[in-house]
C-alpha cells in the first residue's frame, strides 16, 4: 500500500474515533452541515434550469427573440407584414422562424377524447432552434401553406402516455378537432418552446404572403450569424423597425420600440431576480452553517491544546497535524453532504407539491448528476472553509508547563465568526421581512370584487362539436337557462374572461370613438380591457355599480346597443362630465358606471368596459358577439352554500349541457391563492432560510459564550474571592457579549441596506429601506441573542470562588 494512502487511512480512522468519542459535537456539526448543504442543493436544483443549465437548443447563445414592444403586449411580437419583410432580408440572422402567439386548445377526438394544447409553427421552426426530432420529420415549406395538408408533430409525453411509445405512430392518422391529421414526427423528451408555453401538438402555421393580413401576430426567433453581437444585430435591424413604424398610425409610433434578447432572457423574465435572491439566501445560510461548525471545531481544538502540544514535543510534524484536522473536517463535510442530498430531495419534492409554478420549470427540477456534483463541490468548499482556521491554529508556547493559561487568551476569531453569523442572519431576516410585508399587502389589496362565497367554472368548447357560431350560441343559451334554474344560488353569470388573472380582450384607448369628441391627438392612451357578460355578472362578482343601471333582458334586443364603463374609463373618456346617456363605440349608449377591478393581475387595473352577451348574432353592430368569441368561457356563481356542495351542483349543470366537456372548477379564493403562489413561495422560503440561519447563529452564540465562561472560570472565581459582586460579573459578561451582538447588528444593517435594493422588483407597496422590516429584524435578532446568552452569563455570575480556589 502506498505510504500516502496508508497515512490517509490512518488519519481517517483517527477522525472517526474522535467523532465517536464526542457524539454531541458530531451530531451538532452534522446537522448544521446537512441543513446548509441540503437547502443550498435544493435551491440550486430549482434555479439551475433557469439560470445555468444549457437550453435544449443547438448553439443557444446565438438564438434570440426579436420583435416590436408595444402597449398591446408585454412581450415582443411581429405582425405578418413585418415578419415577411424580415424573412426576405434576415440581416444579422442565419435563419428566422415564427409561431402564432398563444397556444390553442384542441381535441384529440378518438375513442377517449383528450383536451390538448396545439401550437401553430412555421416550417423550419425546429431546424432554426436546433432541435432534433425523436422520430419522423418536420413540416416542409410546401406543406406549410393555407388550406394545406393536415399534419402534426406530437410531443414525446403525448407519444408515451397516449400511444405507449408506438414506433409506428409516424404516419398514423389522428382526428384532431374532428379533422383527419397525419402525424409526421415526434418531439424529443426534453423539448420546450422558447416561451415555455405548453405544446402537446405542433401544427403548420399556414402562412400565405399574398393574402396574409396585418392582424395576425407572431412570436419571432432568429439564429444570429457567427460573431454577430446583440448590439450589432440591433443596428442591422433598425431599417426593418423603421419600415414597421411606417405601418403604424403616426400617434402610436412614440410608444413602439425594438427589442432583441436571448431566448434565456425571454424564458426567465422576472424570475431571474427571485432566483438569484433565493440562491444568495441559501449561500448565506451555508456560510452561517460553516461559521457554526468552525466555532465548534475551534472549541474542540482548544480543548485538545495540551494533547497537540505534547505531540509536537514528541516529534509530530506541523503538516501532519494540519492534515489530521482537515481530514476530520472533510469527514464531517462528506457525511453532511450525504445527509444534505437526502434533505435536498425531500425539500424539492415538498416545494414542487406545494407550489409547482412558483418558478419556471420547477416541476422538472430533480437531483441528478449535475446537482450532485454541485453538492459535492459545495461540501468540499464548506469543509475547507470551516476546517482551515482550526487546522492552522497553533497551541500556545509553554502550555505543557501549566493547564490554565489557555483561559486568559483572547478568542477574537470565534467572536468575529459569531458577529459575522449575526450580520448575515440580520440581512436574511430583513429581506424576509420585506417580502412578507409585500405578500401581506398583496393579499389584502382591494380587488374591486367580493371573493367570498364566489365559485367559478372554466371550459372551452371543442372545435369538432362547436365549430359553427350557431352551435356555440345554442350551447350558451341552453347553459344560461340551466344556470338560472339552479337552487341555492344568489346570482349566476357567464363571461368570456374573468378578473384578476387577465386573459381579456383589449384595445387601445385612442381608437375608442366618443360621440362629439375628437380622438386623441397623439399616443395610444394605453390599453382598455373589455369583456362580454350576462346581466347577473356584476351581482355575482360583487362589483359595485356607482352610477346608472345594470344590463337587463331588454338590452339583449338586436336593436339595443348599450355599454357599461368602469370608473377609470368613464373619467378618461368624459372628464368632469356625467357619462350616462353618452354614446361611444359607434353608437353604444353608456347606461352605467362600475367600480374599478384588478382586471390584468393583482397589482394592475386597466380601464374597462362591458358588453352584453346577446342570444343572437347581430352583424349590424360591430360590438356584437364575434363568431369565435365564446368557445372559451367562465361561469361565476355567488352562493351561501357550502363551497364543495356548490361546486358539485355547478359541475352537474355543465355536465347536463355536455357530459364530455372538460371543466375546471374552483372557488375565487382558491384562484387568488394560485395568483399569489410565486410571491408567497419567495417570501416563505426566504423566511424559512432566515429562521434556520437565526437558529444556527443562536446555537453558535450560546456555544461561544458557554466556552468563554468555562475558559474564564478561574479568573471569575478569583475576582469573586477578591470582592467582585455577582451583579458586576453579570454586567461585565453581558457588556462583552453585547459588543459582539452590536458589531454584528451594525454589519447586518449595512448588508440589509445593500441587499434590499436587489429586492425592489419583488416588492409591492413596500420600500427597500422599510423601517418596520428593519426594526422588526433587529428586535427579533436581539431577543434571540439575549435568550442565547442569558444562561451562560448567569452561570458566570454564580461561580463558587472557594471551589475554584480549592481546584487550584
Plain-language structure description:
This protein folds into four domains: 1-60 and 270-405, no CATH class; 71-255, no CATH class; 410-445 and 675-808, no CATH class; 466-657, no CATH class. Mean pLDDT is 84; it is low at 403-410 and 619-629. 48% of the residues lie in helices and 15% in strands. The strands form four sheets. Strands 4, 5, 6, 7, 8, 9 and 10 form a seven-stranded mixed sheet that branches. Strands 15, 16, 17, 18, 19, 20 and 21 form a seven-stranded mixed sheet that branches. Strands 1, 2, 3, 11 and 12 form a five-stranded antiparallel sheet that branches. It is globular, with a radius of gyration of 34 Å. With 808 residues, it is an alpha+beta fold. The relative contact order is 0.11. Helix 2 packs across helix 10 and helix 19 (713-721) crosses helix 22 (801-807).
Name the quaternary structure.
single chain
What portion of residues is helical?
A: 40-55%
Q: Please state roughly what percent of the residues sit in beta strands, choosing from under 5%, 5-15%, 15-25%, 25-35%, 35-45% or over 45%.
A: 15-25%
Mean pLDDT: 84
In total, the number of domains comes to: 4
Parts with pLDDT < 50 across at least 5 consecutive residues: 403-410, 619-629
Outline type: globular
Largest sheet: 7 strands, mixed
Structural class by helix and strand composition? alpha+beta
Q: Given the structure, what is the number of helices?
A: 22
Instruction: Tell how many strands the DSSP assignment holds.
Output: 23
Rg, Å, rounded = 34 Å
- Tell me the span between the first and last alpha carbons: 50 Å
Amino acid at each position: 500500500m502506498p505510504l500516502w494512502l496508508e497515512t490517509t487511512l490512518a488519519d481517517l480512522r483517527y477522525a472517526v474515533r474522535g467523532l465517536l468519542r464526542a457524539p454531541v459535537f458530531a451530531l451538532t456539526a452534522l446537522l448544521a452541515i446537512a441543513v446548509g448543504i441540503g437547502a443550498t442543493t435544493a435551491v440550486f436544483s430549482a434555479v439551475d434550469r433557469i439560470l445555468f443549465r444549457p437550453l435544449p437548443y443547438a448553439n443557444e447563445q446565438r438564438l434570440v427573440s426579436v420583435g416590436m414592444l408595444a402597449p398591446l403586449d408585454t412581450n415582443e411580437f411581429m405582425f405578418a407584414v413585418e415578419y415577411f419583410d424580415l424573412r426576405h432580408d434576415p440581416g444579422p440572422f442565419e435563419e428566422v422562424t415564427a409561431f402564432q402567439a398563444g397556444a390553442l386548445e384542441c381535441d384529440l377526438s378518438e375513442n377517449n377524447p383528450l383536451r390538448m394544447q396545439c401550437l401553430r409553427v412555421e416550417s423550419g421552426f425546429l431546424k432554426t432552434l436546433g432541435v432534433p426530432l425523436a422520430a419522423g420529420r418536420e413540416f416542409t415549406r410546401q406543406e406549410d401553406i393555407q388550406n394545406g395538408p393536415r399534419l402534426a408533430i406530437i410531443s414525446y409525453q403525448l407519444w408515451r402516455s397516449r400511444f405507449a411509445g408506438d414506433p409506428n405512430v409516424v404516419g398514423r392518422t389522428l382526428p384532431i378537432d374532428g379533422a383527419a391529421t397525419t402525424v409526421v414526427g415526434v418531439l424529443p423528451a426534453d423539448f420546450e418552446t422558447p416561451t415555455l408555453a405548453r405544446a402537446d401538438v405542433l401544427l403548420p402555421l399556414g402562412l400565405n404572403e399574398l393574402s396574409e393580413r396585418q392582424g395576425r401576430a407572431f412570436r419571432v426567433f432568429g439564429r444570429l450569424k457567427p460573431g454577430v453581437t446583440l448590439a450589432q444585430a440591433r443596428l442591422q435591424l433598425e431599417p426593418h423597425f423603421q419600415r414597421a413604424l411606417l405601418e403604424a398610425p403616426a400617434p402610436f409610433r412614440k410608444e413602439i420600440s425594438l427589442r432583441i434578447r436571448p431566448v434565456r432572457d425571454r424564458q426567465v423574465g422576472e424570475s431571474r431576480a427571485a432566483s438569484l435572491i433565493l440562491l444568495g439566501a441559501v449561500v448565506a445560510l451555508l456560510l452561517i452553517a460553516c461559521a457554526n461548525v468552525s466555532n465548534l471545531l475551534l472549541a474542540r481544538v482548544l480543548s485538545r491544546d495540551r494533547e497537540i502540544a505534547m505531540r509536537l514535543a514528541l516529534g509530530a510534524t506541523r503538516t501532519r497535524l494540519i492534515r489530521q484536522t482537515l481530514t476530520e473536517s472533510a469527514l464531517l463535510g462528506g457525511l453532511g453532504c450525504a445527509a444534505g442530498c437526502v434533505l435536498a430531495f425531500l425539500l424539492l419534492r415538498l416545494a414542487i407539491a406545494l407550489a409547482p409554478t412558483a418558478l419556471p420549470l420547477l416541476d422538472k427540477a430533480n437531483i441528478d448528476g449535475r446537482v450532485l456534483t454541485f453538492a459535492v463541490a459545495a461540501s468540499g468548499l464548506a469543509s475547507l472553509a470551516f476546517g482551515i482556521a482550526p487546522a492552522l491554529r497553533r497551541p500556545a508556547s509553554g502550555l505543557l508547563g501549566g493547564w490554565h493559561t489557555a483561559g486568559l487568551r483572547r478568542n477574537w476569531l470565534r467572536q468575529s465568526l459569531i458577529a459575522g453569523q449575526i450580520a448575515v442572519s440580520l440581512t436574511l431576516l430583513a429581506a424576509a421581512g420585506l417580502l412578507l410585508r409585500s405578500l401581506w399587502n398583496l393579499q389584502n389589496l382591494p380587488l374591486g370584487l367580493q371573493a367570498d362565497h364566489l365559485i367559478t367554472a372554466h371550459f372551452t368548447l371543442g372545435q369538432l362539436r362547436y365549430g359553427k357560431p350557431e352551435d356555440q350560441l345554442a350551447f350558451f343559451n341552453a347553459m344560461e337557462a340551466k344556470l338560472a334554474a339552479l337552487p341555492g344560488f344568489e346570482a349566476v353569470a357567464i363571461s368570456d374572461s374573468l378578473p384578476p388573472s387577465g386573459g381579456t380582450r383589449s384595445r387601445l384607448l385612442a381608437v375608442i370613438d366618443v360621440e362629439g369628441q375628437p380622438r386623441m391627438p397623439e399616443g395610444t392612451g394605453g390599453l382598455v380591457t373589455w369583456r362580454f357578460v350576462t346581466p347577473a355578472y356584476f351581482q355575482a362578482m360583487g362589483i359595485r355599480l356607482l352610477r346608472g343601471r345594470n344590463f337587463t333582458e331588454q338590452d339583449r334586443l338586436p336593436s339595443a346597443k348599450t355599454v357599461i364603463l368602469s370608473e377609470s374609463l368613464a373619467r378618461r373618456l368624459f372628464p368632469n362630465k356625467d357619462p350616462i346617456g353618452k354614446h361611444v363605440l359607434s353608437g353604444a349608449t353608456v347606461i352605467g358606471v362600475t367600480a374599478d377591478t384588478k382586471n390584468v393581475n393583482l397589482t394592475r387595473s386597466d380601464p374597462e368596459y362591458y358588453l352584453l352577451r346577446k342570444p343572437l348574432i347581430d352583424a349590424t353592430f360591430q360590438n356584437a358577439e364575434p363568431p369565435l368569441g365564446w368557445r372559451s368561457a367562465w361561469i361565476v356563481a355567488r352562493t351561501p352554500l357550502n363551497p364543495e356542495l356548490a361546486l358539485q351542483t355547478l359541475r352537474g349543470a355543465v355536465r347536463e349541457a355536455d357530459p364530455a366537456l372538460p371543466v375546471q372548477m374552483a372557488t375565487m379564493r382558491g384562484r387568488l391563492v394560485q395568483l399569489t403562489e410565486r410571491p408567497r413561495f419567495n417570501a416563505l422560503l426566504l423566511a424559512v432560510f432566515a429562521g434556520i440561519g437565526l437558529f444556527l447563529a443562536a446555537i453558535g452564540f450560546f456555544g461561544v459564550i458557554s466556552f468563554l465562561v468555562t475558559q474564564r472560570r478561574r479568573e471569575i472565581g478569583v475576582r469573586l474571592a477578591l470582592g467582585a459582586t455577582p451583579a458586576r460579573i453579570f454586567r461585565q459578561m453581558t457588556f462583552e457579549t453585547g459588543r459582539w451582538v452590536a458589531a454584528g447588528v451594525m454589519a447586518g444593517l449595512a448588508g440589509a441596506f445593500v441587499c434590499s435594493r436587489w429586492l425592489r422588483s419583488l416588492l409591492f407597496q413596500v420600500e427597500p429601506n422599510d423601517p418596520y422590516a428593519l426594526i422588526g429584524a433587529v428586535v427579533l435578532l436581539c431577543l434571540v441573542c439575549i435568550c442565547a446568552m442569558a444562561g451562560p452569563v448567569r452561570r458566570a455570575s454564580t461561580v463558587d470562588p472557594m471551589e475554584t480556589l480549592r481546584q487550584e
